[in-house]
Amino acid sequence: MRLSRLIILVSVVLLSACAHGPIEGVKSFLGVSTRSLEDARATGVSEIFNADYDTCYQTILELMPELPARIYMQNKTKGMIVALGFRSTNFNVNPGEEILNDPLNEKIDTTELGIFLTKIDTNSTKVEFSSLSASLLEFASEKISKNLKAKLNITKESHE
Question: Which pLDDT tens digit goes with each residue over 102-142?
Fold first, then answer.
């Protein structure tokens, strides 16, 4: 009886997610889908950096602990980094966003930040930031961009 309920539940979840395809349905069910972050790129923030793709990608990874944030998922081939765990004392939390208490009694935002990199040419990389939280998007994109420029010694900005 329990097994049949489980099979029905899994089937319903997978079939409901089939609008994006069966693979995306499985990813959503497992909690590893980046579809919402990819969709949010249209309303996100982007900037072009005068640095090669590999350097930008590696430097962004190195910046995450400084924010502080935790890398949840990364794929260099796809040019994607997903981070979470930003301390909400650094930005305003929107109503309804999930906040967890950490052992240091600080509030931790579990909203994800998507960072997408695209190689433009050998010395230019487009970096796009997306999040379902406007306040996190503003805070993190500004902080990462500022720190990335400093680490790469870039003085001239290029916004898209």
Answer: 454 455 567 899 999 999 999 999 999 999 888 889 989 99
Cis amide prior to 68 (ω within 30 degrees): yes
> pTM here?
0.69
Alpha carbons 114 and 73: distance in angstroms, whole number? 9
Q: How far apart are CA 84 and CA 32, in angstroms?
A: 13
Range of the domain at 55: 34-152
Residues 80 and 28 placed together within one structural domain of the fold: no
Q: Assess whether 73 and 136 both reside in one domain.
A: yes
Segment 33-38 long-range contacts (CB within 8 Å, at least 24 positions apart):
34/73, 34/80, 34/82, 34/114, 36/132, 37/82, 37/112, 37/113, 37/114, 37/130, 37/131, 37/132, 38/114, 38/116, 38/130
Tell me the CATH number at 93: 3.30.310.80
Residues 7, 52 share a domain: no
